[in-house]
Design brief:
The protein is mostly helical. The protein has one domain. It is 74% helix and 0% strand. α1 packs across α5, α5 packs across α7 and α7 runs antiparallel to α8.
């Protein structure tokens, strides 16, 4: 399979996944069509935008306008589905896959622009979680990133694994698969077993 075609397909799927979750959250909060579309766009495109800006590049949706297509599709599916529904397990799994793709691609992007190792790991995290963070803030709900599902931990772990395997000169495809699998495994386990980082107890 052509690598560029594979990357293109993964970008489409991850953008769609983030947009679909964003649109569903917005619909559940009672936003109108304009609000649903806006939240879907922010949820799916903000991470890449932040990542690119930090390395002095144009946002990906400026360079690749086709990224708006999966956003529009997620919006249409949400609107046509009628009554508000909670984010289902399938959509949540898509979102997890999107996190894995966004983490790995963001680290790769940072490395391609000669970012130091620590900065590359942080940019991998930013590229993956910013959209969901902005989505929750704008929908006036407690950000999932900050209190459950270890999303940040999963993405940062995947970013570190990619950097380690890259430093060991592992084949790029293998590095992508291993790092992405770490993101998926950590988040899925945290959902299944209700894991979260320690909290300060109330006195």
């Amino acid at each position: 399979m052509d690598l560029e075609l594979l990357v293109f397909g993964l970008d489409i799927v991850s953008t769609f996944a983030f947009a679909l979750v964003g649109a569903r959250v917005a619909a559940n909060k009672g936003l109108d069509y304009g609000g649903i579309l806006f939240i879907a766009a922010v949820a799916s495109l903000a991470g890449g935008t932040m990542r690119n800006i930090f390395v002095g590049q144009q946002p990906p949706w400026v360079l690749f306008p086709w990224l708006f297509a999966p956003v529009a599709l997620a919006f249409l599916i949400t609107v046509l589905s009628g009554k508000s529904k909670n984010v289902g397990r399938f959509v949540l799994s898509l979102d997890t896959f999107g996190l894995a793709v966004a983490t790995v691609s963001s680290v790769q992007f940072a490395i391609s622009y000669k970012a130091p190792v620590v900065a590359a790991a942080v940019l991998g995290l930013i590229g993956a979680v910013s959209g969901g963070l902005f989505r929750d803030i704008m929908c006036q709900r407690q950000p999932v990133l900050l209190h459950r599902e270890t999303i940040g931990t999963a993405c940062f772990s995947g970013a570190l694994v990619y950097l380690v395997t890259d430093a060991l000169h592992l084949h790029e495809a293998a590095s992508v698969v291993v790092a992405g699998s770490v993101v998926i495994l950590v988040r899925e386990l945290s959902i299944k077993f209700n894991w979260n980082l320690p909290r300060i107890g109330k006195g």
